[in-house]
Amino acid sequence: MANYTLDDIKALREQTGAGMMDVKKALDESDGDREKAVEYLRVKGQKGVAKRESRNASNGLVAIHVDGGVGTLVEVNCETDFVAKGDKFQAVAQRVLDQAVAIGAADAETLLDSELDGKKVREILDEANAAIGEKIEVRRVARVEGAAVASYLHKTSPDLPPQVGVLFAVDGETPVARDVAMHIAAFPETAFVTREEVPAETVETERRIAHDTAVEEGKPEGALPKIVEGRVNGFFKEKVLIEQPFAKDSKKTVGAVLTEAGVKPLAFARFRVGA
Predict the structure, then answer these.
(1) DSSP H/E element including 150
(2) Are 7 and 33 in contact (CB under 8 A)?
(3) How far is residue 147's CA from residue 174's CA, in Å, rounded to a whole number?
């Protein structure tokens, strides 16, 4: 039998995050040599990571950091809500968020390729995969800037970490910005701040669909232009933030509420875990 103690088991578990049986197996296979046991666990862990690559990581959390006029939003995924609730996964997610903030990451690839404590973040996630036993990945990263950035996190279940996160940047300080961030959280169809941001080809597609639908419905030829414009405006009302009815007062648009507050919207980011 290999020569090791309970203290060795404890130390190796703390060092690697591996389970009790895996640690004992590693020490048995390495005759109690802790360094060799670490190598054994890394090899086995990487093998496990490869097996998990095809598995679906649709649970997890969103996390936010705001410092003055800069906001960072990350989505970190795992396979089950059980793991999403756990301290180990949440500690990994916090570490990922802190790194995204530190390097000013605005996309997942930049974050994953960055170095943290001598390793690339993607390597740190691989190690987390091995230690936690599930596929762990960073799906999305967003960075929003403005004179002020409001944020909002929403839990879809009280026993889960936040599943919806929003950042909303404006050109001045106002408490209304947080209300608008909450509005964005409630309206997943929001895709643009203003209609000028909507790509021309998208507008033309909507116009063509509106025209063809009206013709299919047998609408009079002379009425088609007005019907098409009405339906395209309906598209803007659904997709464009400042044209939407404000969630807290549907008699006003979001744009009108912001104008009354004396600020202009600049940008937003919205993530929902798995969506």
Answers:
(1) strand 148-154
(2) no
(3) 10
* CA-atom Rg of the chain in angstroms: 25
**Both 47 and 160 in a single domain?**
no
pLDDT tops 90 at residue 54: no
**Alpha carbons 115 and 241: distance in angstroms, whole number:** 37
Identify the H or E element spanning 70: strand 70-78
DSSP symbol at 142: E
Q: pTM value?
A: 0.78
- Give the structural domain span for 65: 59-191+261-272
Contacts of 134 by beta carbon, 8 Å cutoff, 6+ apart: 52, 55, 57, 78, 79, 80, 83
In this prediction, residues 169-186 reach a mean pLDDT of 96
Q: If DSSP codes are grouped into helix, strand and coil, which group holds residue 120?
A: strand
Whether 165 contacts 266, CB under 8 Å: no
Shared domain for 46 and 84, answered yes or no, is no
